[in-house]
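Interim report, section 4.2 (structural modelling).
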Amino acid sequence: MEKFMLGRKAGMTQLFTEDGTAVPVTVLECGPVSVVQVKTVENDGYTSVKVGYGEAKEKKLNKPAKGQFTKAGISAKKFLREFRTAESFDVGQEIKVSDMFAVGDKVDISGVSKGKGYAGVIKRYNQRTGPKTHGSMYHRRVGSMGANTDPARVFKGKKLPGHMGAVNVTVQNLEVVLVDGERNIIALKGAVPGPKGGGILEIRNTVKSGR
Amino acid sequence: MDLVKALEQEQLKNEYTDLAIGDYVKVHLKIKEGTRERIQIFEGTVIARKGKGLSETFTVRRLASGVGVERILPIHSPKIEKIETVRKGRIRRAKLYYLRDRVGKAAKVKEKLVAKK
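Predicted structure of the assembly:
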């Protein structure tokens, strides 16, 4: 079964398991999501479900956006995401985290990472720094650009300084440590992209085998 | 942030608020051996308390056959059955790391005498 959920990072902490091991966790405020549209093979050529998360102000939406919420009979949502699934859902149905995930599940999570601005190669590609002392004068600079006469150019894809972060990142194979359907909380073992309270995060069951 | 605090609150043990630096304590630890569970006691002086919330830890130091042994334990760990305070210490530091450089009688923390009611 394809599982999915939308949420936001609340912060990180550590929790104790029953046998007393401390586990580093990211706590996410998660769902409930409402089904806005169900896509079928007859209508759309493939099956999927479109869900909305987070209350939106009515006046901030344009007419087409409002229309799909009134059609589904639900309140306006801030974020919309589509998930490929063969499962059957009803339009307007509300899905909680506890309906989707259980403790021990392995999940993948996608979101926009924290922006780092214009960054050098040391930070951006984890390259080594030059010696700090002994008159090296070569501290955090880019290394060799390549050979000289042949090829007489810098190869494409050469790792150079530039904008870092603020891109879509997926973290795979995180374990679900805690699920609370009443308070809409999920806790995952490990770190998750993006800042606290920041952008929307998509949680799916992992593509890695051996889940 | 409140969600995180609320989650931590559930696992917090609020019984060790009077555990102070310099106290001589007996820590009752749950040790699992195969399927059997037994209690092991580690005793010594509390020389530090670090961190806050659920991740707070404390350091217990003792001299075992001439060798200093320190254990850093999460104060809210479920592996700790209980912490028994044997005697209170009179101290003037928040961290008693100076005890590491001392042996014998110099490594002792003076007892804090509490007025009898």
